[in-house]
Amino acid sequence: MPYYRVVGEVPRKRHVQFRRPDGGLYAEELMGEEGFSSDSSLLYHRYPPTAIVKSEGVAEASDELVANHPLLPRGYRTQDLPVGGDLVLGRQVLFGNDDVRLSFVAGAGVSDLYRNSMGDEVVYVQEGSARFESTYGALDVGEGDYVVVPTGTIHRWVPSATLRALVIEARGHIRPPRRYLSQYGQFLEHAPYSERDLRGPGAPLLVEDDHVPVLVRNRGGLSRLTFLHHPFDVVGWDGCLYPFVFNIRDFEPIVKRTHAPPPVHQTFEGPNFVICSFCPRPLDFHDEAVPIPYNHHNVDSDEMMFYVGGDYSARRGSGIGIGSISLHPSGFTHGPMPGAVEAVVEAVRQGHGATTETAVMIDTFRPLRLGPAARRCEDPEYAWTWARAAG
Q: What is the pLDDT of residues 147-195, one digit of tens each?
């Protein structure tokens, strides 16, 4: 995180005695990235966060990923995936590679306490609302929220109804793009969002309980550790590392006179991938602008687009609707449907100078492989829609 935050009670200096009302010492826990050389936060627990009484392995179903072969642009309908489960164990794997795993969840279950020790997560809430609870406190989340969860954060999800969400699991850290930040970490004036747009926990949860199970994912697989005391026994913390929420509606689009490429929509960056937000905005305003994406071939990346709102004019006639996903791999030139350019130019001529689309795009710099959920909800006709529209 680019700025410092204090929640609850903390002592005046770091690593000094901080005593409970009964005279005992609170237990410090430093959560830090990159071997004490990057962002961190210092949490104060009522009881030692190290005390576990049991550990057991948890069996998981195989989420086999297969190559996109034969090479095709592909379309998917998350609307057709089954509903059920919770936001941790109910993840249905769509795509993945060595850097990131992308899953879809549609469920109303309360999740177990969970810690992902393999990397940061971003959960984009397409529909529904929930309370996100963690060692840092609670956050109320809803439609359009990106929930950024740092590596190692113990947390759980408590939906108020069925939650539909895209889950992005990195094999590393996810941060705001470096070009948006000063050398000291402050958002710069040209950035499409700022610190004021980010929501962090405001108060500790202070849960008291014992023998509390927590699911932990690391490179060895999934385990269940039973903690002697509840990990939410934190009375206060401070630092620059914590879960936070950014809503896609707070992204300020960058507009040019002619069409701008996807980097202007970038919202976060991860190891060998980026996350972008396509939001309602004025269309390109040059007198002779073609206000729609041109045919393009990003030779170094696969592009996954999740359509979550409005009308995406470039994909008209392709079967893409709200909740759909398109996957355009390296090796394939993609662009608007035949006739879409002419239709948008005419719409602008008639005074319709804005777009209503909302979409989340993920570009990966290694090929995405296809997971079981993708194979389950694929539209087998998507690849041929350009040719059919042209004919």
A: 999 999 999 999 999 999 999 999 999 999 999 999 999 999 999 999 9
Count of other CB atoms within 10 angstroms of residue 139: 21
Burial of 67 (C-beta count, 10 Å sphere; 0-12/13-18/19+): exposed
Contact 99, 374 (CB under 8 A): no
Q: Residues 202, 206, 211, CA angle at the centre, nearest 5°?
A: 140
> Is the distance from CB of 211 to CB of 182 less than 8 angstroms?
no
Q: What distance in Å separates the CA atoms of residue 128 and residue 86, rounded to the nearest whole number?
A: 13
Q: Give the residue among 150, 199, 175 at the shortest CA–CA distance from 267.
A: 175
| Per-residue model confidence (pLDDT) at position 340 | 85
Confidence (pLDDT) at 312: 77
- Number of residues written out for the chain: 391
State CA 35 to chain mean position distance: 24
Residue 1 pLDDT: 56
* pLDDT grade for 351, boundaries at 50, 70 and 90: confident
Using one digit for the tens of pLDDT, what is the confidence trace for 352-374?
888 899 999 999 999 999 999 99
Task: Please calculate the CA angle 251-4-175 and round it to the nearest 5 degrees.
Answer: 45
* Pair 164, 106: CB distance under 8 Å: yes
Judge contact between 213 and 224, C-beta under 8 A: yes
Place of tokens 């687009």: 305
Residue 314's pLDDT is 66
Q: Which tokens is 321 given?
A: 């609707």
Q: Which residues pair with 149 in a beta bridge?
A: 121
Comparing CA positions, the residue from 1, 55, 49, 5 lying closest to residue 26 is 49
Phi, psi of 374 (to 5 degrees): -65, -45
pTM above 0.90, yes or no: yes
Q: What is the C-alpha separation between 228 and 234, in angstroms, rounded?
A: 14
